[in-house]
């Protein structure tokens, strides 16, 4: 009974916060509603026994992605009135995406009503006694090791590409000369003086 109440509570909050993420006029409020949706989705994952996915939702999505969204929205000078003005122009694309999402929901409901999943026919069956995190680690670093490393390389290339594309040469910038700094002697940097009373220090 408690699990059912927790499920309906988390599901209701996820639906409401997702709707408020779209309907909020203030983009900061939208990001905060999105964070609430992520937290409650993590609660749903805990209920079904997928604690690793719940941890990823909290650490990766809430701790990194949503906070990054929040910083971008708060720090960049974005003209949201101009963005809203182009809503009608993209209404057809938004409607197409909405139809696709509804179709996916209907397919998911049909798959759920078709019956349970045969666990023996899974692509990577695991022992029920092995915890989720341990099972995921065993699969990632054995069967899917090269795919996992390939994904890491793709992210590395994407990061380097973003840095190269956004790098700008600035005129008048002063850069460090490490060799010159290391060659500098203490007596060249300081000077011992004994000023007279009432006389200032000469720079």
Automatic annotation (TrEMBL):
Location (main, coarse): membrane
Keyword Repeat annotated: no
Membrane topology reported for the UniProt record: Multi-pass membrane protein
GO-annotated cellular components: plasma membrane
EC numbers for this chain: 7.1.1.-
Compartments where found: Cell membrane
This protein's UniProt keywords: Cell membrane, Membrane, NAD, Quinone, Transmembrane, Transmembrane helix
Family annotation (InterPro entries): NADH_UbQ/plastoQ_OxRdtase_su6 (IPR001457), Nuo/plastoQ_OxRdtase_6_NuoJ (IPR042106)
UniProt xrefs under Pfam families: Oxidored_q3 (PF00499)
Residue stretches spanning the membrane: 6-24, 31-50, 56-78, 90-112, 144-165
Catalytic activity, reaction form: a quinone + NADH + 5 H(+)(in) = a quinol + NAD(+) + 4 H(+)(out)
Entry superkingdom: Bacteria
GO molecular function terms noted in the UniProt entry: NADH dehydrogenase (ubiquinone) activity; quinone binding
Similarity comment: Belongs to the complex I subunit 6 family.
Biological role: NDH-1 shuttles electrons from NADH, via FMN and iron-sulfur (Fe-S) centers, to quinones in the respiratory chain. Couples the redox reaction to proton translocation (for every two electrons transferred, four hydrogen ions are translocated across the cytoplasmic membrane), and thus conserves the redox energy in a proton gradient.
PANTHER family reported in the protein's UniProt record: NADH-UBIQUINONE OXIDOREDUCTASE CHAIN 6 (PTHR33269)
Protein name from the UniProt record: NADH-quinone oxidoreductase subunit J
